[in-house]
Amino acid sequence: MPSWEELYNELIAKAKRLGHNPAPARLRVLREELDHIDHRIRHEVPAGERRYELALLSQEADTFLTAAESRVQIARNVARAQREREAHDAAHPNILSPRSALADWTPDPIARAERNHREGSERDH
Protein backbone atom coordinates (compact mmCIF):
# COMPACT_ATOMS: atom_id res chain seq x y z
CA MET A 1 0.00 0.00 0.00
CA PRO A 2 1.39 3.42 -0.91
CA SER A 3 2.25 5.87 1.84
CA TRP A 4 0.08 8.90 2.61
CA GLU A 5 2.64 11.17 0.97
CA GLU A 6 2.59 9.04 -2.19
CA LEU A 7 -1.21 9.20 -2.30
CA TYR A 8 -1.16 12.99 -2.04
CA ASN A 9 1.69 13.36 -4.55
CA GLU A 10 -0.16 11.12 -7.01
CA LEU A 11 -3.31 13.21 -6.58
CA ILE A 12 -1.33 16.43 -7.05
CA ALA A 13 0.24 15.02 -10.23
CA LYS A 14 -3.23 14.11 -11.55
CA ALA A 15 -4.47 17.62 -10.76
CA LYS A 16 -1.52 19.16 -12.59
CA ARG A 17 -2.29 17.07 -15.70
CA LEU A 18 -5.90 18.26 -15.95
CA GLY A 19 -5.14 20.94 -18.54
CA HIS A 20 -6.88 24.21 -19.35
CA ASN A 21 -10.45 22.94 -19.60
CA PRO A 22 -10.82 19.84 -17.42
CA ALA A 23 -13.95 17.72 -17.45
CA PRO A 24 -16.17 18.50 -14.44
CA ALA A 25 -16.75 14.77 -13.87
CA ARG A 26 -12.98 14.19 -13.62
CA LEU A 27 -12.70 17.07 -11.15
CA ARG A 28 -15.47 15.57 -9.03
CA VAL A 29 -13.66 12.23 -8.92
CA LEU A 30 -10.40 13.87 -7.85
CA ARG A 31 -12.18 16.01 -5.25
CA GLU A 32 -13.85 12.89 -3.81
CA GLU A 33 -10.48 11.13 -3.75
CA LEU A 34 -8.96 14.05 -1.83
CA ASP A 35 -11.87 14.07 0.63
CA HIS A 36 -11.50 10.31 1.14
CA ILE A 37 -7.75 10.59 1.84
CA ASP A 38 -8.33 13.51 4.22
CA HIS A 39 -11.02 11.57 6.06
CA ARG A 40 -8.77 8.53 6.46
CA ILE A 41 -5.90 10.68 7.74
CA ARG A 42 -8.11 12.40 10.31
CA HIS A 43 -9.08 8.99 11.69
CA GLU A 44 -5.87 6.99 11.24
CA VAL A 45 -2.93 9.37 11.72
CA PRO A 46 -2.37 10.69 15.24
CA ALA A 47 -2.04 14.43 15.73
CA GLY A 48 1.51 15.67 15.46
CA GLU A 49 4.17 16.73 13.01
CA ARG A 50 3.40 14.03 10.43
CA ARG A 51 -0.27 14.93 10.38
CA TYR A 52 0.69 18.60 9.97
CA GLU A 53 2.92 17.75 6.99
CA LEU A 54 0.12 15.69 5.46
CA ALA A 55 -2.25 18.62 5.97
CA LEU A 56 0.15 20.79 3.96
CA LEU A 57 0.08 18.25 1.13
CA SER A 58 -3.71 18.20 1.35
CA GLN A 59 -3.79 21.99 1.04
CA GLU A 60 -1.51 21.84 -1.99
CA ALA A 61 -3.77 19.28 -3.67
CA ASP A 62 -6.81 21.38 -2.79
CA THR A 63 -5.16 24.45 -4.32
CA PHE A 64 -4.58 22.66 -7.64
CA LEU A 65 -8.13 21.31 -7.70
CA THR A 66 -9.60 24.71 -6.85
CA ALA A 67 -7.60 26.30 -9.66
CA ALA A 68 -8.89 23.65 -12.07
CA GLU A 69 -12.46 24.29 -10.90
CA SER A 70 -11.91 28.00 -11.55
CA ARG A 71 -10.72 27.22 -15.08
CA VAL A 72 -13.89 25.20 -15.67
CA GLN A 73 -16.02 28.12 -14.48
CA ILE A 74 -14.12 30.55 -16.70
CA ALA A 75 -14.58 28.25 -19.71
CA ARG A 76 -18.31 28.05 -18.98
CA ASN A 77 -18.56 31.84 -18.67
CA VAL A 78 -16.68 32.38 -21.94
CA ALA A 79 -18.90 29.88 -23.76
CA ARG A 80 -22.05 31.47 -22.31
CA ALA A 81 -20.89 34.96 -23.31
CA GLN A 82 -20.17 33.74 -26.84
CA ARG A 83 -23.65 32.20 -27.11
CA GLU A 84 -25.19 35.45 -25.83
CA ARG A 85 -23.21 37.50 -28.38
CA GLU A 86 -24.27 35.17 -31.19
CA ALA A 87 -27.91 35.37 -30.09
CA HIS A 88 -27.68 39.17 -29.88
CA ASP A 89 -26.06 39.38 -33.31
CA ALA A 90 -28.78 37.17 -34.79
CA ALA A 91 -31.53 39.24 -33.15
CA HIS A 92 -29.98 42.59 -34.16
CA PRO A 93 -28.39 42.13 -37.60
CA ASN A 94 -28.03 45.89 -38.23
CA ILE A 95 -25.83 46.50 -35.17
CA LEU A 96 -22.16 45.60 -35.48
CA SER A 97 -20.93 43.30 -32.77
CA PRO A 98 -17.67 44.36 -31.15
CA ARG A 99 -16.40 40.87 -31.99
CA SER A 100 -17.22 41.06 -35.70
CA ALA A 101 -14.46 41.38 -38.28
CA LEU A 102 -16.02 44.62 -39.51
CA ALA A 103 -15.61 46.31 -36.14
CA ASP A 104 -11.81 45.63 -36.10
CA TRP A 105 -11.76 45.13 -32.36
CA THR A 106 -8.64 43.85 -30.60
CA PRO A 107 -9.14 43.02 -26.90
CA ASP A 108 -5.44 42.78 -26.03
CA PRO A 109 -3.93 46.28 -25.56
CA ILE A 110 -0.43 45.05 -26.44
CA ALA A 111 -1.63 43.42 -29.66
CA ARG A 112 -3.64 46.57 -30.44
CA ALA A 113 -0.56 48.76 -29.91
CA GLU A 114 1.55 46.51 -32.15
CA ARG A 115 -1.13 46.58 -34.85
CA ASN A 116 -1.41 50.36 -34.62
CA HIS A 117 2.37 50.69 -34.82
CA ARG A 118 2.50 48.46 -37.93
CA GLU A 119 -0.31 50.43 -39.56
CA GLY A 120 1.22 53.78 -38.63
CA SER A 121 -1.80 54.91 -36.65
CA GLU A 122 0.04 55.30 -33.36
CA ARG A 123 -0.76 58.48 -31.45
CA ASP A 124 1.98 61.08 -31.09
CA HIS A 125 2.71 62.07 -27.52
Counting DSSP H or I runs of 4 or more residues, the number of helices is 4
Radius of gyration: 24 Å
Number of strands: 0
Shape: elongated
Terminal Cα span? 68 Å
> In this structure, how is the largest beta sheet organized?
none
Query: Helical percent range?
Result: over 70%
| Unreliably modeled segments | none
Overall domain count: 1
Description:
Residues 111-125 have a biased composition (Basic and acidic residues). Residues 83-125 are annotated as: Disordered. The protein has 125 residues and is mainly alpha-helical. It has one domain. Helix content is 70%, strand content 0%. It contains four helices and no strands. It has helices spanning 4-16, 24-44, 49-91, 109-119. Helix 1 runs parallel beside helix 3 and helix 2 (24-44) packs antiparallel against helix 3 (49-91). It is elongated, with a radius of gyration of 24 Å. The mean pLDDT is 85.
What's the gist of this structure?
With 125 residues, the protein is mainly α. Helix content is 70%, strand content 0%.
Q: Tags for this entry?
A:
0% strand, mainly alpha, 125 residues, single chain, 4 helices
